[in-house]
From TrEMBL:
Keywords: DNA-binding, Repressor, Transcription, Transcription regulation. It comes from the Bacteria. Residues 3-46 form the HTH cro/C1-type domain. The lineage of its organism: Bacteria, Pseudomonadati, Pseudomonadota, Alphaproteobacteria, Hyphomicrobiales. This is LacI family DNA-binding transcriptional regulator. GO terms for molecular function: DNA-binding transcription factor activity; transcription cis-regulatory region binding. It comes from Kaistia nematophila.
Length: 334
């Protein structure tokens, strides 16, 4: 019985291209379609043969596993990664981290994972996989835990938290803000790094980071909103808040709305990390953020290297990007 691999070889294209042609998931050129159609006819191949091939060969699919999240950040990173893999004729199947764990432990979908081309795991301390070593031994794997900075660097990514915090506070200071609130995530290496960098920048700029305006929250949006509200309803309050994640920024925006505090009229808000939702909230959220396209390019290059049985030595120093939107205003002349 002919397989999809046989069709791809006869047509001179990749397996992924044949799959796109068969399932109409991506357009192929007229010439390519003719070659694939002829190969199918010559081999008397039927789509049902794909199931037989699926059971006996490696699936040309990369699994991308992400956690549940209150923002689109991980979805945005996954979409950028998927677009990059497509250039290598590798398809992406996105799954929740919990689904990946079930596949890793066995069950109906375990065979798909065993025959995958690679796995990308994105997450944080609240949701992660149990046995990283076992997964890495099984398949080419890139694992990015945003709370483990040492392991983040071990994957070849260098994120400049000091530059991001300095850029954010300098931006606020240049617009006349001196009383700055901070909303941090859980007290883990990323939050600690941003906090230390923020204090250093504040000292350099002569800013007031009053302890009453420094709020630690979990990753849950309702918790961020409630803690932001508790801080903002007291007097005095800061003129601006720098948050260490967009979900925290959204929490501040909603808390301000509930209290009748106008953003940016009465309070400016700036967040570290960007996501597509920052363009969809009101007001649109100003951010400083490591480059998502750079993260995606690095992940794909690393997986492709590992797939060729070579040691992955790529190192990417992430740029920090300031995106000005509507949530910060100048109070210098007020």
């Amino acid at each position: 019985m002919s397989t999809i691999k046989d069709v791809a070889a006869l047509a001179g294209v990749s397996i992924a291209t044949v799959s796109h042609y068969m399932n109409k998931t991506k357009a192929v050129s007229e010439a390519t379609a003719e070659r694939i159609g002829k190969a199918i006819a010559d081999l008397d191949y039927s789509k049902d043969s794909m199931a037989a091939w699926f059971k006996t060969s490696q699936v040309p699919v990369i699994f991308v596993a992400t956690p549940h999240a209150d923002t689109s950040f991980f979805d945005d990173v996954s979409a950028a990664i998927e677009e990059r893999f497509d250039r290598h004729d590798l398809s992406v199947l996105r799954v929740q981290l919990a689904t990946l764990e079930r596949m890793r432990r066995g069950g109906p979908l375990a065979s798909l994972l065993q025959r995958a081309a690679g796995v990308v795991v994105l997450g944080h301390s609240d949701e992660w996989i149990e046995d990283e070593a076992a997964l890495a031994a099984q398949l080419p794997t890139v694992m990015l835990n945003w709370d483990r900075l040492v392991e983040f660097r071990e994957q070849g990514l260098v994120e400049h938290l000091d530059l991001g915090a300095d850029m954010a506070l300098t931006y606020l200071a240049e617009r006349g803000h001196r009383d700055i609130g901070l909303m941090t995530g859980p007290s883990l290496p990323r939050a600690q790094g941003l906090l230390a960098a923020s204090r250093k920048a504040a000292d350099r700029l002569g800013l007031n980071l009053d302890p009453r305006w420094m709020v630690e929250t979990s990753y849950d949006f309702p918790d961020a909103r409630d803690r932001a509200r508790a801080m903002l309803e007291k007097s005095p309050r800061p003129t601006a808040v720098f948050t260490f994640g967009t979900q925290f920024g959204f929490g501040v925006l909603q808390a301000a709305y509930q209290l009748g505090i106008n953003v940016p009229g009465d309070l400016s808000v700036l967040s570290y990390i960007d996501c597509k939702q920052t363009e969809q909230c009101a007001p649109r959220l100003t951010t400083v953020s490591p480059s998502i396209p750079q993260i995606a390019a690095h992940v794909v290059a690393r997986i492709v290297t590992l797939m060729t049985d070579r040691e992955a030595t790529e190192v990417t120093s992430l740029e920090v990007e300031l995106t000005e939107r509507d949530s910060v205003r100048s109070i210098r002349d007020i």
